[in-house]
Design brief:
This protein has 159 residues and is mostly helical. It has 5 helices and 4 strands; from the N terminus they run H-E-E-H-H-E-H-H-E.
Length: 159
């Protein structure tokens, strides 16, 4: 690895590398972390209807294992890069988010967690829980609300 860049901020713009990531409001990132350009990653682009820290933890673990695959399992690394180029899963969970630039690319937290687990299992990666096993194991992100109800103001559930 030649460079690790850490940055914080609300805006997703990357003026020095925007062409590699795509649209600045919602970069074209597989599972919100893997760029369509091989070997380029970005943790923190996830926009979700729940807290993002568990997702960023899971995605960080996946990125680290993918980077390790490049040296340890080059065939697996290459297969995943091909998969990244073509897989475009619907991670909305059937939720119709507000039709606005701000909400473009929003994902449903339980849906993306389930998909991350599926991809990790297929790749032979391990996702370790850091005290949040119930969230990683797929329980509702809103445990005190009835099934199908979300307190988030910016979402509408489809019947």
């Amino acid at each position: 690895m030649d460079l690790v860049l850490l940055a914080t901020g609300y805006r997703h713009t990357l003026p020095y590398a925007q062409a590699l990531f795509g649209d600045e409001q919602h970069p074209d990132m597989y599972l919100t972390a893997f760029a369509r350009t091989p070997g380029l990653y970005g943790i923190g682009f996830v926009e979700t209807n729940s807290g993002a820290y568990i997702l960023m933890d899971m995605l960080s673990q996946m990125v680290a294992q993918h980077i390790a695959d490049r040296m340890r399992r080059p065939g697996a690394w290459e297969a995943f890069e091909k998969h990244v180029a073509n897989d475009r899963p619907d991670l909305s969970g059937g939720i119709r988010f507000v039709d606005s630039p701000r909400h473009t690319g929003y994902v449903d937290s339980p849906t993306i967690r389930k998909y991350l687990k599926s991809v990790s299992k297929r790749m032979g990666w391990t996702l370790r829980s850091l005290g949040a096993a119930s969230l990683i194991e797929g329980q509702s992100s809103h445990p005190h609300e009835p099934e199908g109800v979300c307190a988030c103001q910016h979402v509408e559930h489809t019947p």
